[in-house]
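I hope you will forgive my troubling you with a question about protein structure. The full record is reproduced below for your convenience:

——
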Amino acid sequence: MTFTGLAALGLLAAAGSGLAWLVVKGRQQQRKADFERSVLSRKLGWSYDGTRDGRVDYRFWARAGELSWSMWYDSDRGDDSPTPKARWSSENLRTPRLALLILGRRRFGLESGTFGRLFMGIVSGVATAISARGGMPDRTEFYESAVPLEEGSPAFRERFAVALAPDMPRGWLDDGAQKLLMQWPAGRGGRTLKAEDAVEVSLGPGGLSITVQKMPDDMAHWQHLARLGEHLAAQLAPSSR
């Protein structure tokens, strides 16, 4: 074998070793993170399950007074353009139809406009044809009659929009809710989540739900998400009865 061939084999072996090291290192980091989440969950009085189930990598759940909630990390694995999501949900609060949306003001403008509603209607029609059940009909209908909530500080209203069903009560959007929606912990490298582009809150037949796109999966962010969910649930409880 020539010297060039030997050199090529050596490079391949080195690359293989490097790849194997990265795989082992990645698994070690995953196990460490899983252990830390488990320990901190117990300290917080939460339950934790690190078993991967489809796109869901791990789950938390807890009870706070009469409120039961769960959180999970959806890796969006298998999608052509994966968008990891953190989700918080409680079925204790329900309304007969979609009654509340909180989302970034820019996205709200796009969705609630004529083009946005038309687009959601098309998406819903395609979903219905494929799976025999609609994906966004409730949301499309919601925007037809929803009214904006003109409450909150100027800073909050500049970043977020709140839309309500006409019969939803007002007065629940206090300073605490606004602060939790806007001010998230610093992530790795000191980067802060741009909440108005990432956070969506909804209240409907499936309960109260919060979705955070591309949320850092450290425990500081999970604790913040849990506090946000519990606070909104407490504020909205009279509205869902």
Remarks:
- Residues 3-44 form the longest helix (42 residues).
- Helices lie at 3-44, 105-112, 114-131, 137-145, 154-159, 175-182, 195-198, 219-236.
